[in-house]
Amino acid sequence: MPRLAYEEIVGFGDELSKWCKLRKAKGLCIRASKDVQKKCLTRVSGYVYEKHSHHQAADFLKGADVWLIAHALCEGGTVVTEETRGVKLKVKIPSVTKALGGKWCDTSDMLNQLEARFG
User: Fold this and answer.
1) pLDDT tens digits, one per residue of 86-102
2) Secondary structure of 52-92 in the HEC alphabet?
3) Is 119 contained in some domain?
4) Residues 61, 3 share a domain
5) How far apart are CA 111 and CA 65, in angstroms?
6) What's this model's pTM, rounded to 2 decimal places?
């Protein structure tokens, strides 16, 4: 998980933030490599500014979402999100990821792929 996403999640102080904090030292929170910063982040932000209004792009780029996509693109990962594609009033993670050739799925798909079992 990119550092900015980690900080965003632990700021809520809920059960998920506690779970993340326990796993930070085990590699959950990572720094962006130079490739992520120079190549992929630039590619994602350029695409977002090209396809969306300045206001929408600026709002999207100030959060962690852009870093999630940049890391996934550079490292061959998959972005897991509960956002859905669609309405153009807001920049959506799945739309940007797909447009740039990346992979994304929702939490249910991720759990199925990992063959997670509960109870």
Assistant:
1) 666 789 999 999 999 99
2) CCHHHHHHHHCCCHHHHHHHHHHHCCEEECCCCCCCCCCCC
3) no
4) no
5) 21
6) 0.88
